[in-house]
Specification:
8 helices, binds heme C, Immunoglobulin-like, 3-stranded mixed sheet, 5-stranded mixed sheet, binds copper (II) ion, 40% helix, 329 residues, 3 domains, alpha+beta
Amino acid sequence: MSRFAPIVLTLLLGACAGVQTPLSPVGDQASALHSLFMLMMFVCGGVYLVVLTGIIWSVLAARARRRQDAKNGSDKVLSRGLYTAAAVIVAGLTVLIVGSFIADRALIAARDDDAMLVRVTGHQWWWRIEYRDPASRRWIETANELHLPLGRTARIELDSGDVIHSFWVPNVAGKIDMIPGRRNIVDLTPRRVGWFRGQCAEFCGAQHAHMAFDVKVEAPAEFDAWLARQDNPVAAAAPDMPRGMAVFQGVCGSCHNVRGTSAMGRAGPDLTHFASRRSIAAGTLPMTRGGIQGWLAQPQALKPGTSMPTVPLAPSDADAVATYLETLR
Ligand code: HEC
Ligand SMILES: [Cu+2]
């Protein structure tokens, strides 16, 4: 048995830590829901054990009765058992009602009306993310990677550009739907720095599973510096750059925006600081040279059905575009 213990424990505890799990909460909202979940699990688990015990007891009692063929008062035992069960159920439900009320209060208490505003729009199958600069009140656009300042509340306004999606960063808060024509709101108050992972949680088409995003919780000063960098347009092109940039502006600029250049499309993710992100195409590929080249060569093979067409480029042009994208930091 001791040989199997590590395997059993790994299976049992394996889901309790990680970058995408509500069982390891790092945000005020997720902590409130986690406490409620634990309460529900223990109350319902307790009731489950009571019911199982009752079933086993009644089977054994029926056998014993058949053997003795006598009644000797088991009706009284049965009715006492039923009263006890009813009392346990009423007590359990009361605990759950009080628990969910407390969780609700905690979620409301975690609200902050001075929160930093972030707008996230779901698209098949990527995330448009806009931050409102607290100083200038302008919106700063990026995509597929959410940065959050530690200990501050971010109010996320959720929209959809097409079908119903669902915004979920399980370590930080509960999930909430993104519905076309209706704005939902979720507050995020993270309490631990690190990388986490968000995932669309409402089936939204063939590439629903490839609709994820990286979440970075960082110290407020680090976050402010990051936001200021995201706000910058790209630096003027280096002398050896024009080729990839020219190709990009010609064939990609109608769908992609690179602030500071003539590429001003809105159909796809903003690429102004594309290479500063950790992954490509909503968590589909890691941010490496190979990842960029692979995505440009065959987006339809890597993410069949995506709205990014496979653009036929001469190998030298594709190479120049990949080099250009790598400079967008
Ligand atoms: C018809 C519009 C369209 C054209 C043209 C287009 N793209 Fe895209 N692109 C998209 C869309 C939409 C996505 C998001 C796809 C997804 O993740 O499902 C995307 C995603 C990307 C990404 C990943 C962005 C991220 O945040 O991870 C890169 C890089 C990219 N495109 C580069 C290019 C380049 C380079 C070209 C030109 C060769 C190009 N695109 C042409 C629409 C387009
Ligand atoms: Cu989705």
